[in-house]
Write the structure tokens for this entry.
Amino acid sequence: MTRAGRTRGARPLAEPSRARDAGDTPRWSHRRVVRTVAHVSDLHLGRDRRTDLAARELCAALVRAAVDAVLVTGDLTHRGRVAELRAFEEAFAPLLERGRVVVVPGNHDRAGEDVGATLMVGSRVGVTDLPGLHVVRVDSTAPHNRSLVAAHGLLDGRDLADVDAALREAPAGALSVVMLHHHVLPLPAEDLAERLSGWLGWPNAEELPRGRELLAVARGRCDLVLHGHRHVPSAASPFPRDARPLEIVNAGCSPDLGGALGFAHEHGRVLGSYWIAAGPSRARVARGRAAA
């Protein structure tokens, strides 16, 4: 992977810092430091006033929860407009100013004025390192996403090779995460439009064609694969007997769910997950085993 692929966050946004803020006190217990990361997705700023308000409430909840990092897996905006990206920056300013937000673009970010093209510059695969956390950022969008009716993603051989190289760079004792927008394994259709797309053989609602290859690259070297795109949250453990299990988590549409899933981790291992509620939560995370 070229060094251009090693980035420090979304270009127009505040860059994640390698060091903790001076006022950020880690949680110590018998010389243990337990860190936390929150998974947010499909914010769709600009969709309507309720969505924009929900995004602000979500940021406030994440600040109250004192999470160490927030990973946003695409669709920050609803129509890919600059004004919508600015709305995201304003809504998440308290976290952006602390350098705790890491993003990848989604298909909606590539529409309109194509702000998604500014979120990852120089490479489709980037690396962000935070204390105890090694994040491999993958841009799964493509030029066809300039049309909202062509929502499916793209992974090619070079992307997979770059992810492989990025995972090899993970520091010892760091939690390794791959984050991208599109789902890597098949998921049920969520509405009539997706069912119709499937009946017609269109790829709009399909998983990434090389998603299983991505999992093969990540297996044994990665702890979490985080994505969004589908608005119903889900989770799966495709290799439950592995010494280093891999968890695939779809955040769903965070504003509609009224919160985000948080993970506590230590020494490169997930200790557990918990819900960070921004208001009345309707979250129901569907779990299942996916055939790899």
Observations:
- Helices lie at 49-65, 82-91, 93-96, 157-168, 192-199, 211-218, 254-257.
- The radius of gyration is 17 Å.
- The CA atoms of residues 5 and 126 lie 4 Å apart.
